[in-house]
Amino acid sequence: MAELSARGRNGFFSNYLQALLAFKHLMRIGNCFMGMLMVVIGSFAVFQGDVLDHIEVIIPACAVAFFLMAGGNMINDVFDVEVDRTAHPSRAIPRGIFSRRFVFRWAISFYAIALFFAGLINPYSFIFALAAEFLLLLYELRLKKYPGIGNVVIGALVGSVFLGTAAAIDRWKILTVLGLLAFLINVARELIKDIEDIEGDVDRNTFPKSFGVNSTLYASWFILIITIVLFVMPYYPLALFSGYLYLGGMAAADLVILVGIYQSKKNPKRGQQMLKFAMLLALVTFLLGNWF
Length: 292
What we know:
mainly alpha
C-alpha cells in the first residue's frame, strides 16, 4: 500500500512537472525575458548611469513586454494548432496537455495584466499596449493568411518593444533606431522560419509557398544586408553610440548574420537560430555601446 501511495505521488509530481514545462513552452518564456531585456537595454541606452532614477517606469514597462509576449505566443498556439500537429507535434495543445480554451483564457489574462501595468505608466503606454494586442489578434485572425504581411507584422511587433519603451520613458530618437534594426532582422528571420515550416503550413499562404523558397531566401538576405549596413548608423552619422565596444559588438553581430545567411539555404532552422543569436549580440552591444 505504501509503495502504491509513493507511486501515486511520483506520478502526480511527474504530471505536474510535465504540465509546468509545457506551460512555460506555451509562453516561450525565453522570448518573454528577451522582451524584458530589450526594455532594460533601451532604457540603459537612453539614461546610461541614471537608469535607476527611472526605475519606477522601467519595471512596469518590463512587465508589459513580458506579458504581451506571453499572451501573443499563447494566442499563436491557439490559432496554429492544426499547423502544429504537423510542424510542431510536441507542443502542448497537439499533445493534449492543455485544451485550446484553457490556453486562450490564459492568453487573455496575460493581455489584461499587460494593460494593467501599461496603465500604471501613462496613457500613451496603455494605448500602445492596447494597439499591440489588437494587432496581434488581427494578425492571427486575418493578416497571417497573406504572404509576407504576417512576417512584417511580427517584425513590427518585436521592434515595437523599443517603441513601447520610448512611450514609457518619453525618449524617441535612439529607441526608434533600435526598433527599426530589430524590425528588419526579425522580418528576415520570420521569412526563413516560413521556409522551415513550409510542410506544416497547410492553412497559410506563406511567402515561400507563394513565391518559392529561393525567392524567400533572396528577400531575407536582401533585408539582412540592409540591416548590416544600418548597424553603422547609430555610430555614424547619428552618433547615438560612441564607444569602441559598439563597433566591435556590431562587427560580431554582422558576422553571425552572415553565417545565418549561409546556413539558411541548407538548414533554415539553423539559419534563423543564428539570426536570433545575432539579435542577442546586438542587444548586448546596445547596452554597452556608450560605456567603453
